């Protein structure tokens, strides 16, 4: 007479309290997983902070959210796209172009309306350029790190600011070039 395994059909409370069997049944690796069953093993590594090795270029693999339930939640990534690097470098370059054009316009008789930049300009050309560049360079890494966070509970992510800021710099540089052509003869 064959011996039948009735263990899967016995309720958990009976298995654990009366029969002294484990609450979870061992998984047979030869059997396919049930639809919707958890396929991951081990502890969730996202629960602990990233170590110092996380800043190394080859550390980490996460470039975007992986699961549908993470889509509307803010998240950090380990790697950033080459396009984001290009946008950051273009913003830094646009900041330097803006500084140089501003200096040329001021030498032609214009005035700086930003009080902080006016103060830096009163210290000299080099402090003005370094200060303008430093303010831009300090803010950009914060935007990069939080690029996947939503602004003020809207659907607008921080990362969407990069092209917006670049377009604003483009408009500003275009306006400065028009002023240069009109008043400096550039």
Describe this entry's structure for a reader.
The structure is a single chain. This protein is an all-alpha fold and 186 residues long. It is 47% helix and 0% strand. The protein contains 5 helices and no strands. The protein starts with 11 loop residues before the first helix and ends with a helix.
Order of helices and strands: HHHHH
Major beta sheet summary: none
Mean pLDDT: 77
User: Oligomerization state of this entry?
Assistant: single chain
Strand content: under 5%
The total of beta strands comes to 0
Structural class: mainly alpha
Query: Roughly how many Å is the radius of gyration?
Result: 29 Å
Could you outline the blueprint of secondary structure elements for this entry?
Layout: H1 12-18, H2 82-107, H3 115-123, H4 125-145, H5 161-184
Helix pairs in contact: 2-4, 2-5, 3-4
Short account of what is shown:
This protein has 186 residues and is mostly helical. The chain is 47% helix and 0% strand.
Name some characteristics of this structure.
186 residues; elongated; 47% helix; single chain; mainly alpha
């Amino acid at each position: 007479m064959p011996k039948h395994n009735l263990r899967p059909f016995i309720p958990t409370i009976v298995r654990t309290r009366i029969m002294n069997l484990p609450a979870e049944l061992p998984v047979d690796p030869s059997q396919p997983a049930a639809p919707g069953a958890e396929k991951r093993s081990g502890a969730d590594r996202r629960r602990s902070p990233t170590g110092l090795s996380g800043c190394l270029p080859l550390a980490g693999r996460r470039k975007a959210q992986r699961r549908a339930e993470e889509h509307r939640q803010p998240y950090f990534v380990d790697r950033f796209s080459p396009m984001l690097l290009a946008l950051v470098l273009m913003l830094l370059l646009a900041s330097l172009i803006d500084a140089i054009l501003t200096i040329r316009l001021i030498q032609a008789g214009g005035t700086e309306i930003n009080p902080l930049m006016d103060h830096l300009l009163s210290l000299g050309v080099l402090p003005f350029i370094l200060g303008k560049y430093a303010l831009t360079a300090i803010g950009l890494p914060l935007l990069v790190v939080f690029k996947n966070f939503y602004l003020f509970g809207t659907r607008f992510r921080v990362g969407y600011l990069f092209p917006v800021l670049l377009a604003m710099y483009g408009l500003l540089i275009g306006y400065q070039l028009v002023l240069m052509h009109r008043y400096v003869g550039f």
